[in-house]
Amino acid sequence: MQLPLDDPRTGQLRRIHAALIGAFGRIIRPPDKRRSPEWTLVQGVIGAQTKTAISNASTDALLARYGSWDAVADVPLPELEAMLTAQSFPRVAAERLSACLNRIRDARGTVTLTHLSNLPTAEAMAWLETLPGVARKNSAGVMNASTFNREAMVIDGHHRRTMQRIGVVPEKADTAKTFDTLMPILPEEWSAADMDEHHLLLKKLGQRFCKPRSMDCANCPVLDDCRTGQQAISR
Ligand code: SF4
């Protein structure tokens, strides 16, 4: 029986991954840097348009001050907003976080995501996406970047933009469409840790070479595999 051929984009993703490691080095999240699923969820819910390091610090500060996510769920909104002033949109972050934590507690009796460990990844992500303030980026983050360590590609703005320009996903794909396009064509040998590293490498590509308003295609490490870059240098 003839085996089905790989989608050509699978090989493209392997080459891009190798080229980015060549340019930036390995970016491997140590096991002790993986946070709990609940911490990862909170970091994502409050993190809209805010640098990762700032959201990480705000999430740590919440837990340090109140001691548990159940206690954070009970914090009045003005006080929660005051705790989140480093975020780009403190009021929105406070409202979303409070609604999200209270929805989990209503459903599970306490703020916990332990029940997701028994579900297949797609089902767990679908459950997470019913929560206020949780979309595909955050649900994939909870599954992949937390101690769950599941196979789910996290897609942020850098990842989406670079994949669009390279030509792996459609030009106008939103985060969910980008995720749905990428997951079936990822190299089968990639582990959850490889997906995490791939995302972090593409984020660096978006920050250093393929910025929202400017592209340094001539020096870009993935120029050979990029449709937009090839068009740009042939003009
Ligand atoms: S070659 Fe240009 S468009 Fe392509 S990823 Fe690199 S910087 Fe972006």
Tell me about this structure.
The mean pLDDT is 96. The relative contact order is 0.14. By secondary structure, the chain is mostly helical. Helix 1 crosses helix 11, helix 5 packs across helix 6 and helix 7 packs across helix 8 (136-144). It has helices at 8-24, 37-45, 52-66, 69-73, 77-83, 90-108, 121-128, 136-144, 157-166, 175-182, 192-208, 227-234. It folds into two domains: 8-27 and 154-234, Helix-hairpin-Helix base-excision DNA repair enzymes (C-terminal) (Endonuclease Iii, domain 2), CATH 1.10.1670; 35-144, Endonuclease III, domain 1, CATH 1.10.340. It contains twelve helices and no strands. The protein is globular, with a radius of gyration of 19 Å. Helices cover 56% and strands 0% of the residues. Bound molecules: iron/sulfur cluster. Iron/sulfur cluster (SF4) is lined by residues 162, 165-166, 209-210, 215-217, 220, 222-223, 226, 228-229.
Layout of strands and helices, then pairs:
Blueprint: H1 8-24, H2 37-45, H3 52-66, H4 69-73, H5 77-83, H6 90-108, H7 121-128, H8 136-144, H9 157-166, H10 175-182, H11 192-208, H12 227-234
Helix pairs in contact: 1-11, 2-3, 2-8, 5-6, 7-8, 9-11
The protein binds iron/sulfur cluster.
User: Which stretches are poorly predicted, pLDDT < 50 over at least 5 residues?
Assistant: none
Question: Got a strand count?
Answer: 0
Tell me the helix content: 55-70%
Distance between the first and last residues' Cα: 45 Å
Enumerate how many helices there are, as a single number.
Answer: 12
Please write the CATH class name of the largest domain: Mainly Alpha
